[in-house]
UniProtKB/TrEMBL annotation:
InterPro entries according to UniProt: Cyt_P450, Cyt_P450_CS, Cyt_P450_sf, Cytochrome_P450_monoxygenase
GO molecular function, one term: oxidoreductase activity, acting on paired donors, with incorporation or reduction of molecular oxygen
The name this protein goes by in its record: Cytochrome P450
Lineage summary: Eukaryota, Fungi, Dikarya, Basidiomycota, Agaricomycotina
Organism expressing this protein natively: Serpula lacrymans var. lacrymans (strain S7.9) (Dry rot fungus)
Family: Belongs to the cytochrome P450 family.
Length: 429
């Protein structure tokens, strides 16, 4: 399996990698995924998206990438994510307590025992609230959350324009009196002002929060203000889409497979020990990676990666992949959708939802066969939080409801992420 191809990305032709050999070709110096840290980022990104994200850490490369990550990584460690589980689980339970009264729910039986909902309407505010708590800490009150949520709506419009707008791909479009440019100006001005205001208030009150600590790096000259605002944008707004869609697919796929759902409910029922502390037992269960719950999370991410293709990058040096020379500064994409399904590791049922496959596979085995948070050192900043959010939501969904799918499952064509188009039926146990 060669796993090499080409595709147009913007105005340039990009090489597409879609198999383990193309990502791990010997010798080690030619290992594409291990050299992401040396890649040239921010290639073929549409002009509109660079105006709001062009200076974020995810678009940076080499020394700039290392510099910014040195200021951000400490706030998103695996240990901090684990410590956040009790607070996250509390938020998830409160969200489900109010689910039957939400406007997007359609009751289909008396007293709300059975209800219908579009998968793409679910869970949006759960990961948003969690990450807001992580980065704003004690400064996050109801008023600030409402303000952040309003910017999320504006940001979503801007991202839709960036990915689907034709005019906005061109730099000259930024000078035109369009609604998109008015939205862009309002977001850039308001977002920067909000972050400065909250950071200054936190300093005056002696409150520690990651946003405030990163703003200090701006004042100290270790980050530029656009790097600061764009990186917080990436963390709070852009990555939330990825986490939310991951939850949607996990719940939808489990809903499609009744036998898996029954086994998962049975597993959940067995985690409680009469003499143990309920919260401690739940926290331990959610941290484990040898459970059916975790395997469902992994399998849903394998079958339905957030994007079909990775963002475009350029190689800093020439590389040899399976005997083919990839010149320096070649634009490269990873076809995650194909990689996650056609690798021999997943054979003979790579297109089938079978969570149990992860019970016998170690991460080292599928290292170059599973694209989700990126590969190598450039993995997503919030990856440690993503699995906790998805597992908490899937846990509570199955614990409270029998979930089924009405009709066919497809992918929405009006979103830049791979979002499910499905009608789910929730019936209380």
């Amino acid at each position: 399996m060669l796993g090499l191809g080409t595709i147009w990305a913007g105005m340039s032709l990009s090489s597409v990698l879609s198999s383990p050999p193309s990502l791990s070709s010997p010798p080690p110096t030619h290992n594409v995924s291990n050299q992401y840290i040396n890649h040239i980022r921010n290639t073929n990104q549409m002009h509109s998206s660079t105006r709001i994200l062009g200076e974020c850490v995810g678009f940076k490369h080499t020394d700039d990438w290392r510099r910014i990550r040195s200021h951000t990584d400490r706030h998103f460690t695996a240990s901090i994510a684990i410590e956040s589980i009790p607070v996250l689980m509390k938020d998830v339970k409160e969200w489900f307590d109010g689910l039957e009264g939400k406007g997007f729910i359609k009751p289909i039986s008396e007293k709300g025992k059975k209800m219908e909902v579009m998968a793409s309407d679910l869970f949006w505010d759960i990961p948003f609230k969690m990450i807001s708590k992580v980065i704003f800490g004690e400064m996050l009150d109801d008023n600030l959350f409402k303000e952040l949520w309003s910017y999320n709506g504006l940001h979503e419009r801007l991202m839709m324009t960036s990915f689907f707008g034709k005019l906005e791909q061109w730099a000259l479009s930024s000078y035109l009196p369009t609604a998109a440019n008015r939205d862009m100006a309002a977001f850039q001005r308001g977002w920067g002002d909000l972050l400065k205001r909250v950071s200054n208030e936190a300093y005056e009150k002696g409150i520690f929060m990651p946003v405030g600590e990163m703003y200090k790096k701006v004042l100290d000259g270790e980050m530029t203000f656009p790097e600061f605002t764009h990186t917080i944008d990436e963390t709070l707004f852009t990555n939330i889409d990825a986490t939310t869609v991951s939850i949607m697919w996990a719940v939808t796929l489990v809903a499609q497979h009744e036998e898996v759902q029954e086994r998962l409910l049975s597993e959940i029922a067995q985690i409680w020990e009469p003499e143990g502390d309920e919260e401690d037992q739940l926290n331990l269960y959610l941290k484990r990676t040898d459970t059916l719950l975790h395997h469902c999370y992994m399998e849903s991410g394998r079958l339905r990666p957030i994007l079909f293709y990775s963002m475009s990058e350029q190689t800093a040096d020439s590389k040899v992949i399976r005997g083919h020379v990839i010149p320096a500064e070649t634009s490269i994409l990873i076809n995650g959708h194909a990689l996650n399904r056609v690798s021999p590791i997943w054979s003979p049922d790579g297109d089938v939802f079978r969570p149990d496959r992860f019970a016998s596979l170690s991460p080292a085995v599928y290292r170059y066969s599973f694209w989700r948070f990126g590969m190598g050192p450039r993995k997503c900043l919030g990856m440690h939080f993503a699995d906790k959010v998805v597992k908490c939501c899937l846990f509570e969904s199955v614990r409270r409801y029998k979930i089924s799918v009405r009709g066919e499952v497809d992918v929405r064509r009006d979103r830049f992420v791979q979002m499910p188009l499905a009608t789910l039926v929730f019936e209380r146990h």
